[in-house]
TrEMBL record:
<protein>
    <submittedName>
        <fullName>1,3-beta-galactosyl-N-acetylhexosamine phosphorylase</fullName>
        <ecNumber>2.4.1.211</ecNumber>
    </submittedName>
</protein>
<keyword id="KW-0328">Glycosyltransferase</keyword>
<feature type="domain" description="Lacto-N-biose phosphorylase C-terminal">
    <location>
        <begin position="665"/>
        <end position="716"/>
    </location>
</feature>
<dbReference type="GO" id="GO:0050500">
    <property type="term" value="F:1,3-beta-galactosyl-N-acetylhexosamine phosphorylase activity"/>
</dbReference>
<dbReference type="InterPro" id="IPR013780">
    <property type="entry name" value="Glyco_hydro_b"/>
</dbReference>
<dbReference type="Pfam" id="PF09508">
    <property type="entry name" value="Lact_bio_phlase"/>
</dbReference>
<dbReference type="InterPro" id="IPR012711">
    <property type="entry name" value="Lacto-N-biose_phosphorylase"/>
</dbReference>
<dbReference type="InterPro" id="IPR035363">
    <property type="entry name" value="LBP_M"/>
</dbReference>
<dbReference type="GO" id="GO:0004645">
    <property type="term" value="F:1,4-alpha-oligoglucan phosphorylase activity"/>
</dbReference>
<dbReference type="InterPro" id="IPR035356">
    <property type="entry name" value="LBP_C"/>
</dbReference>
<keyword id="KW-0808">Transferase</keyword>
<dbReference type="Pfam" id="PF17386">
    <property type="entry name" value="LBP_C"/>
</dbReference>
<dbReference type="Pfam" id="PF17385">
    <property type="entry name" value="LBP_M"/>
</dbReference>
<feature type="domain" description="Lacto-N-biose phosphorylase-like N-terminal TIM barrel">
    <location>
        <begin position="6"/>
        <end position="437"/>
    </location>
</feature>
<dbReference type="InterPro" id="IPR029062">
    <property type="entry name" value="Class_I_gatase-like"/>
</dbReference>
<dbReference type="InterPro" id="IPR013783">
    <property type="entry name" value="Ig-like_fold"/>
</dbReference>
<feature type="domain" description="Lacto-N-biose phosphorylase central">
    <location>
        <begin position="441"/>
        <end position="660"/>
    </location>
</feature>
Length: 719
């Protein structure tokens, strides 16, 4: 069979023409890109391929930036906590920060734009009771209360772009100039970005796709005094703050923001924090501005006859692809980094663009491509997890980034990617635009709803953290499962109720976080709406500390539906007799052992009606409970694995009262899956492991047969 071509983007670099041509042929690439730190020479630009050129809107133009340092981007930061020993307290507010990245803003009056807060009482210290020493970067508090703790919330200028800084350090760029980021909300910078782009387009006639990386404001990434990451929030709006923004916000929204609205006690409004009304207003304000200004740049690109692509990363803050302003930008495409199935779906499901592209791992950097390491292992794991999601909704293109010369030194890796690119094209050409079979409609309920589709529990773009892998597994499992997934917020339910087509709601997270819900669960309308919905036949799955809010005698506000609650120590005097697990249960029928990740302590059953499925160490980790005509399931945690994916799917079908439909388009072996596309009469039988697997496979009518699949095999069949 003739080898397919296209849908693959290849990174390249100077003086690498021959090898680039070879890998273009082997990988079937039809586009070539540069990366941060690389350039394409003229010979490469003349190859038969689309040319992507990385374009930085608000960095990499130091001649302009140095002449307008007052228009550098800004952040609000908070100092360390400082204990007053006497009535005079001297605070080194820059302690712990990297002065090559950040400089205090003395251009604007600190007395107007900074705050000193007594963190023991939460009160703001009167501006007359503190002063700033610019020479030493100190704040001196007078009339301090001994043994109270104080912090300073202060404005800084960002004088080194954090992504370039990371790449600079990782790749040892030595004396290469530091990119200075400038703020396009400022008059000079705003005019410059448009003038510069117009000239750049004239100077780069061979560019076909302008790859905006991204637009204006970087996600919050602040380094410590050792040049290491101090604070990173892939969703953080901290670097979008400036005096100009604060003034414009007040004019648009009718009230002023405090520094505390941004620094948020040092939590900086991470996506784990239940967002305040003020911060939601600020996000909306930034998103609207970014969309309006980005559209101007996209229009300029289109007028030049080129395509406009956005990288979902770096300076992506304010773009929010699932937000209400994104469609105004008019982009042709979005490209993002694929860390697994959830991040693949995050990209593939983006509306209002002509095509999407996933940048697969590993990145061709020396932290992976070094002598003695085998990058095939990471590439294989990345592909197998992403492939599950691709079989639900493919991106239109895949690609890689970094130094191609590094990857070329690893022939086994080159051969493996040759197989990956061909398999991707086969999947895309077979099912793109074809609706896959879905047995259920599932809604993820949290504070963010649709705005953060496929983005829950991420810290630094799907990196592993001890406190979240037990929740990230939920999205990873769902990303490639035969269910239709939507994301709804607490406000959605309060205002509009539960959508009629939802079979099961999932609420998952630690207590107090935006994902569990915090004080949202003290809202009478929210609780009664969902209680009624479950009682009338809905399914509910709670994971971790769902509906947690210590209120009126319950910790889990849906405890009577879930059949379990958490012991806080307040009800130790109340005996808990219900500890006997059921002998067998539909949910655990495929489970040989349980992995709840970090799990959850002190969960107990409320009554004999609670079906305890797993009980150990004196606590419930898995259970189900009838509530009227509905069912609720509790799970202590769900890291991603094949076994936990099966457990979750069984829990979903059980909660929905649809056990009889579980075996439609089903594989008995947990390492295998069946993806069906009824409208075209095709199905894919997939081995998600790196070992040979044998499975009984069921079609949509319940007929079955046994198949044996080679490691990682995908087998297409007509029906």
């Amino acid at each position: 069979m003739e080898k397919r071509k296209g849908r693959v983007t290849l990174p390249s670099e100077e003086n690498f023409l021959k090898e680039t041509k070879e890998l273009m042929e082997r990988w079937g690439a039809d586009a070539i890109r540069d990366s941060d730190g690389t350039k394409l020479d003229d010979e490469i630009k003349q190859l038969d391929a689309k040319i992507y050129t990385t374009y930085f809107v608000a960095r990499g133009q130091n001649e302009f930036a140095k002449n307008h340092m007052e228009e550098c981007q800004q952040l609000y930061l908070m100092s360390l906590f400082n204990t007053a020993l006497t009535e005079k307290l001297e605070i080194d507010f820059m302690k712990g920060y990297f002065e090559e990245q950040l400089q205090p803003d003395y251009f604007h009056d600190p007395k107007k734009y900074w705050e000193v807060i007594d963190r023991t009482t939460g009160s703001v210290v009167d501006a007359e009771d503190w002063k700033v020493c610019e020479k030493t970067n100190r704040v001196i508090v007078i009339n301090a209360i001994p043994w109270h703790e104080y912090t300073v919330s202060f404005l800084v200028y960002a004088i080194w772009d954090p992504t370039q800084m990371y790449n600079h350090i990782t790749n040892d760029w030595g004396n290469k100039p530091h990119d200075i980021p400038f703020d396009v909300r400022q008059a000079n910078s705003n005019q410059h970005m448009k003038t510069y782009l117009k000239q750049w387009l004239k100077d780069n006639p061979d560019t076909d796709v302008v790859r905006f990386t991204t637009f204006f404001y970087h996600f919050t990434l602040v380094f410590n005094n050792l040049g290491k990451e101090k604070f990173v929030d892939w969703f953080g709006y901290g670097a979008s703050v400036s005096v100009a923004a604060l003034d414009a916000f007040e004019q648009e929204k009718g009230y002023s923001l405090r520094p505390e609205d941004i620094v948020d006690q040092g939590y900086y409004n991470t996506s784990f924090r239940v967002p305040t009304p003020a911060f939601l207003d600020y996000m909306d304000f930034v998103q609207k501005f970014v969309a309006e200004e980005a559209k101007k740049l996209v229009d300029i690109v289109h007028e030049s006859g080129k395509e406009a692509m956005m990288f979902l990363g770096d300076n992506w803050i304010g773009t929010e692809p699932y937000g209400k302003y994104f469609n105004r930008i008019g982009l042709d495409a979005v490209v993002g980094s694929v860390g697994g199935g959830a991040t693949l779906r995050m990209i593939a499901d983006i509306p209002h663009v002509r095509y999407t592209e996933g940048r697969f791992l590993p990145y061709f950097f020396p932290d992976t491509f070094y002598e003695g390491n085998n990058p095939v292992l990471e590439a294989n794991e990345n592909w197998l997890t992403a492939r599950r999601a691709i079989l639900r909704n493919p991106v239109d293109r895949i690609g890689y980034g970094g130094y191609l010369s590094l990857a070329y030194k690893f022939p086994e890796f080159v051969s493996y990617i040759e197989k990956v690119t061909e398999e991707f094209r086969e999947i895309h050409d077979t099912i793109k635009g074809i609706e896959p079979y879905s047995g259920l409609k599932v809604a993820i309920l949290n504070s963010w709803g649709k705005l953060r589709t496929w983005q829950t529990h991420m810290v630094a773009h799907a990196l592993w953290y001890k406190q979240i892998y037990s929740y990230l597994g939920i999205l990873e499992s769902l990303s490639g499962s035969a269910v239709d997934v939507s994301f709804i917020s607490f406000d959605d339910v309060i205002n509009d109720g539960v959508p009629e087509d939802i079979d099961v709601i999932i609420n998952a997270g630690d207590a107090g976080t935006a994902f569990s819900g915090g004080n949202h669960w003290s809202n009478e309308k929210l609780v009664t709406t969902i209680r009624a919905w479950i009682h009338n036949g809905g399914g509910f799955i709670g994971i971790g500390e769902p509906t947690a809010c210590n209120h009126e005698g319950h910790y889990f506000q849906l405890a009577t539906a879930l059949g379990v609650d958490k012991e806080l120590g307040f009800s130790l005097s109340t005996d808990k007799y219900f500890v006997t697990p059921v002998g067998e249960h539909f949910i655990s029928a495929d489970s040989t052992e349980f992995d709840f990740g970090e799990g959850m302590k002190n969960i107990y059953a409320l009554s004999a009606d609670t079906e305890i499925i797993e009980y150990s160490n004196g606590e419930v980790h898995l259970s189900s409970h009838p509530f009227g005509d509905g069912r609720a399931v509790y799970i202590a945690g769900l890291p991603y694995s094949e076994e936990n994916t099966r457990l979750l799917m069984r829990a979903l079908y059980y909660a929905a009262h649809k056990e009889e439909a579980f075996h439609k388009w089903h594989a008995s072996n947990i390492y295998c899956e069946v993806h069906a596309y009824p409208s075209v009469g095709k199905m894919a039988i997939v081995n998600n492991s790196m070992k040979e697997q044998t499975s009984v496979v069921f079609d949509g009518d319940g007929n079955s047969k046994e198949v044996t699949l080679a490691p990682s095999e995908i087998r297409w069949e007509d029906f």
